[in-house]
Amino acid sequence: MIRTKKKFILASRSPRRANLLRQIGIKFSVHESNVDEVLDPGKTFGENVKSLSLQKALAVASHYTSGIVIGSDTIVVAGKRILGKPASRKDAAAMLRQLSGRTHTVFTGFSIVDAKSKRTVVDCEETKVTFRRLSDREIREYVRSGSPMDKAGAYGIQDDYGAVFVERLEGCYYTVVGFPLTKFYIALQKFLQS
Amino acid sequence: MIRTKKKFILASRSPRRANLLRQIGIKFSVHESNVDEVLDPGKTFGENVKSLSLQKALAVASHYTSGIVIGSDTIVVAGKRILGKPASRKDAAAMLRQLSGRTHTVFTGFSIVDAKSKRTVVDCEETKVTFRRLSDREIREYVRSGSPMDKAGAYGIQDDYGAVFVERLEGCYYTVVGFPLTKFYIALQKFLQS
After folding, report:
1. Domain for residue B2, yes or no?
2. Is residue A14 part of a domain?
3. Into how many domains does chain B fold?
4. Residue-number span of the structural domain to which A119 is assigned
5. Chain centre to alpha carbon of residue B44
């Protein structure tokens, strides 16, 4: 278990990330970063999610004189296309059609920043996800539920009905939920000890 | 989504299985089977979990004249050893030491039985799970929490702190939670249409 008296600040308003942190017993407040999620085409996908998670954590850390800020960023990559949060319901349906019956990769980066010392750890994890073939009706119903709209790649593996789109995973499950829990936990333990 | 007026009965008191069924919008009552979970060494692991899930579903179906009964059974296999629910805290610690730093396989079988016609579908799914190396202290703390005691293999991937033992998955995540949600969903759709 994590043992520390330091306060944690989560630089994300994602309820999924919050739930994962709670699951391993971390108490935290939420402070959203408002960083624009702009990807750098000159960087790898892994470098991009690391860089964005760090930008978010540093932006929030600048408001505090103590505490540990946790930043995170997730992107979904299908073929060479990056799928962020859908801009519209039509966009969400197009994303789901692209994911249907194929394997894509989810990249999630995380950063841990000590607001006082500005000491930082950044890392990322990637997981391969295979969707079964979805029917047009399933896509229509899922989009109509509104669930895809706040999620990169237009689906949530944990929350709801989106779970039964996924046939197979290779790698860390929590990376797909939006936060690489095991890798983060090990990194945080080291961070607090050093 | 699943559309039917039939009533569902879950032949398991596992809160994890109940949560997964709720996640895909199925409403059900719970009726525990009390079937002895005795494995047949002459059968494969997959055949065993299928057979036990069916025994549970049929035992419960015998109490009803209508409705659809869902049975399920999970075993954890490490090397050639089958890990069921731990008999004691000492047993739980021994299981976790055996899983530490290695890959094991989780088998989950499910059965769907129409209580009226006795029509049946049975299937199973297997997933490979890799644990990171656990410290003695982590094992001690996790066992002390009581969490391992009602779980095959002495850990829960979803509920709690056990999540950060898992480094990597290959296959269906929900099979490890204790119910192969995607495969079940597809089988149930076919079952209700035919």
Report:
1. no
2. yes
3. 1
4. 8-193
5. 17
Residue B171 sits at φ, ψ, to 5 deg, of 125, -150
> How far off is chain A from B63, nearest CA to CA, in Å?
30
Tell me the residue type at B20: L
> CA-CA distance, A169 to A173, in Å (whole number)?
7
A161 to chain B, any CB pair closer than 8 A? The answer is yes
Residue B1 lies in a domain: no
B40 given a catalytic annotation? no
> Is there a contact between A18 and A10 (Cβ–Cβ < 8 Å)?
yes
Using a CB–CB cutoff of 8 Å, tell me whether B144 touches chain A: no
Collect all residues of chain A within an 8 Å Cβ-Cβ radius of residue B1. 141, 161
Task: Read off the pLDDT of residues B113-144 as tens digits, 9 standing for 90 and up.
Answer: 999 999 999 999 999 999 999 999 999 999 99
- Which of B163, B170, B172 is facing A24, going by the closest CB pair? B163
pLDDT in tens, A56-108: 999 999 999 999 999 999 999 999 899 988 999 999 999 999 999 999 999 99
Q: Which residue bears the tokens 């509104």?
A: A146
Those residues whose C-beta lies under 8 Å from the C-beta of residue A58, and which sit 6 or more positions away, are: A69, A71, A111, A113, A120
A182/B165 touch (CB, cutoff 8 Å), yes or no? yes
Residue A113 phi/psi, 5° resolution? -125, 125
| Interface mutation target, options B173, B183, B185, chain A, most CBs of A under 10 Å | B173
Tell whether B25 lies on the interface with A, counting CB pairs under 8 A.
yes
- The tokens describing B52, both together, are 């036990």
Please indicate if any CB of chain A lies within 8 Å of the CB of B164: yes
The pTM of this model reads 0.89
Q: What is the CATH number of the domain that holds A164?
A: 3.90.950.10
Nearest CB partner across the interface for A169, out of B141, B161, B173:
B173
